[in-house]
TrEMBL record:
Keyword check for Amino-acid biosynthesis: yes
Keyword set includes Metal-binding: yes
GO cellular component: sulfite reductase complex (NADPH)
SUPFAM superfamilies assigned to the protein according to its UniProt record, in alphabetical order: Nitrite and sulphite reductase 4Fe-4S domain-like (SSF56014), Nitrite/Sulfite reductase N-terminal domain-like (SSF55124)
Listed PANTHER family: SULFITE REDUCTASE [NADPH] SUBUNIT BETA, SULFITE REDUCTASE [NADPH] SUBUNIT BETA-RELATED
Pathway terms, separated by semicolons: Sulfur metabolism; hydrogen sulfide biosynthesis; hydrogen sulfide from sulfite (NADPH route): step 1/1
Name used for this protein in its record: assimilatory sulfite reductase (NADPH)
Gene designation per UniProt: cysI_2
The protein's required cofactors: siroheme; [4Fe-4S] cluster
EC identifiers of the protein: 1.8.1.2
Length: 371
């Protein structure tokens, strides 16, 4: 997106910097977790511009409360033709004011917290030579994927549920073989989603029956026959792939979900859409701080448990229990799920309920994540 060679070698800043674009009502990219988040503003079916958020990020270090996940702060709106200029000027603010002395404090989220979002806006306006407008109205419904078939731009797109993003063949689910067969006849493309799923994209109407036949033949799923919890689950790879892992994640979450599903069944909540995420360490690759239920690995078999993020990805969760194993996870969740089933208001999501019920405090600013 940025002009090639604009940042010369001496300006290279060796810190991760993420830019994401969300199209309401879907927040599938978790726009508040991005260093720069662009929220598309659509009017009369046309993109007119973007609201911009600054300074989101997930990573932290266990035991170091100066590190924390943070939400991007909404600072304004600009017409779409300025997207490149706005992103470039924000990057130069981080280049000039980011902390180069302390690596754990180097991400843009800490720069924004150190100087304040108002200062970032004013500095950005100065560098642009014009001012952002007030943010425009928008609304997010969810931060997951839209499964199944959708139609757009004269083509068809099928979002396939892939548990934790792992494509492999098992005895009773030949996912890898099926995708290879589809690839042999598919004239469109495949797209990885930020929720670890796969879109078989740009399917021509005349090709759709053939793709559908393969989907049926191999029993590929849009997730509908899974619980709302499993459909909204995500885990990082952790062991054995990631050298930073402190606990299992991808290989463990599916079996933990099976046990939580028994609790959901008991509470009559099997169809309830609840986001659940797990990572093997606090670097947060599966964006756990934005899940209604989350687990962050501390040691083999031990996790910190977090509750209370919003279903739309605009509120962080809060630690509920520290360093617990599976038995305590299930013991802790059971009464809360039963209470949720009994006391929730119509349409109230689990994360909102645990905050309203006082089970955890709302965290709308990462600076109070640990307090
Ligand atoms: S969250 Fe930690 S364990 Fe998981 S993939 Fe990222 S760095 Fe590895």
């Amino acid at each position: 997106m940025l002009r090639k060679n604009h940042f010369t070698v001496k300006h290279i800043y060796h810190v991760k910097f993420k830019i994401g674009i969300a199209v309401p009502p879907s927040n599938d990219i978790d726009v508040y977790s991005q260093d720069i988040g662009l929220i598309s503003i659509i009017e009369d079916g046309k993109l007119v511009g973007f609201n911009v958020t600054v300074g989101g990020g997930m990573g932290m270090t266990h035991g170091n409360t100066k590190t924390y996940p943070q939400l991007g702060r909404l600072i304004g709106y600009f017409p779409k033709e300025h997207a490149l200029d706005v992103c470039e000027k924000i990057l130069t603010i981080q280049r000039d004011y980011g902390n180069r002395q302390e690596r754990k404090n180097a991400r843009f989220k800490y720069t924004v917290d150190r100087y304040g979002a108002d200062w970032v806006l004013s500095e950005l306006n100065n560098r642009l030579g014009w001012s952002l407008e007030s943010p425009r109205e928008f609304h997010f419904d969810h931060n997951g994927d839209r499964y199944g078939w959708t139609e757009g731009s004269g083509k068809w797109h099928f979002t396939l549920f892939i548990q934790n993003g792992r494509v492999k063949d098992t005895e009773d689910y030949k996912l890898k073989t099926a995708l290879r067969k589809i690839a042999e006849i598919h004239t469109g493309d495949f797209r990885l989603t930020p929720n670890q799923n796969l879109v078989i994209a740009n399917v021509d109407a005349q090709k759709k029956p053939e793709i559908e036949a393969l989907i049926d033949e191999y029993g590929l799923t849009d997730g509908k026959h899974y619980t709302g919890l499993r459909r909204n689950s995500m885990a990082c790879v952790a062991f054995p792939t990631c050298g930073l892992a402190m606990a299992e994640s991808e290989r463990y979450l599916p079996s933990l979900i099976t046990k939580i599903e028994d609790l959901l069944d008991e509470a009559g909540l099997s169809e309830e859409e609840i986001t659940i995420r797990m990572t093997g360490c606090p670097n947060g690759c599966a964006r756990p701080a934005l899940a209604e239920i989350a687990f962050i690995g501390k040691a083999p078999g031990k996790y910190n448990m977090y509750l209370g993020a919003s279903f739309t990805g605009d509120r962080l969760n809060k630690m509920y229990k520290e360093n617990i194993g599976e038995a305590e996870i299930l013991e802790s969740l059971r009464p809360i799920l039963l209470q949720y089933a009994k006391e929730r208001t119509e349409g109230e999501h689990f994360g909102d309920f645990v905050v309203r019920a006082g089970i955890v405090d709302a965290v709308n600013d990462g600076q109070v994540f640990h307090s």
